[in-house]
Structure formats: C-alpha cells, structure tokens
Amino acid sequence: MDIKPIKTTEDYQSALKEIESLMMAEPGTSEGDRLDVLVTLVEDYERRHCPLDLPDPVAAIQFRMEQEGLSAKDLEPMIGKRNRVYEVLNRKRPLTLKMIWRLHQMLGIPAESLIKQPL
C-alpha cells in the first residue's frame, strides 16, 4: 500500500490504524521507516485540523500561581510593580514581550499560552 497525504478524516483514521499495527516495528526496517513517515503525516494533519485549546494568558498565569502557591508579589520580577501585576491579572493591561519571556523562563508557562489572544 502506498503512502499518501492525509486529506480527509477517513485518511486520518486509516493512518492511525496502520500506525497501531506498526508500533512494534524495528527502527531501520522498511516497516519502521513506514511508521516514521505515517507518524509525520498524522502529526501534520493534527496540527492543521486539531489545534490545542490553550488557556488564555491570564488563566495560564493564574493556574501556575495556584500550582506553585504564588502571590501577586511573586510575579513582580516577571511583570513589574504590584499595580502592574494586578492590571495584568484583571485583564486591564496586556502582556508585553518582555513579560511573556520572563514568565516563560521563570515559571515554565508555555509561550503559546502567553501569546494567545485574550478572551
């Protein structure tokens, strides 16, 4: 069976079934190579048709604050003075690129969540 682009849901389902049957294929074999190509095609299809539903930036920050037990004061090194932190958390001020970079670096919040358009 030839490998072809995944254009429809049926193509996608078929590729997933074939990937499942090839999961135990040894790397470097023709089956292993086929598995690699199919996985690449499926990843591309999913990226185009099944985007992740990322939280908005403020929700991502609040989630990390809750996880880490952080207060608004703890965000000052990343966002600025306390009043600026509250403006961001209350959606009165957008994040700047510098804030996004610091939040990503210091708290490990995915940059994709921080750059998403606010709700």
| Share of helical residues | 55-70%
What's the average pLDDT? 90
User: Percent of residues in beta strands?
Assistant: under 5%
Report the uncertain regions: none
Give the CATH H-level superfamily of the largest domain: lambda repressor-like DNA-binding domains
Form type: elongated
Assigned CATH class of the largest domain: Mainly Alpha
SSE order and pairing:
Elements: H1 9-22, H2 30-49, H3 57-68, H4 76-79, H5 82-89, H6 97-107, H7 111-115
Protein name: Transcriptional regulator
Describe it for me?
- The chain has 119 residues and is mainly α.
- It has two domains: 9-49; 57-115, 434 Repressor (Amino-terminal Domain) (Orthogonal Bundle), CATH 1.10.260.40.
- Helices cover 62% and strands 0% of the residues.
- The protein contains seven helices and no strands.
- The radius of gyration is 21 Å and the shape is elongated.
- InterPro entries: Antitox_HigA, Lambda_DNA-bd_dom_sf.
- This is Transcriptional regulator.
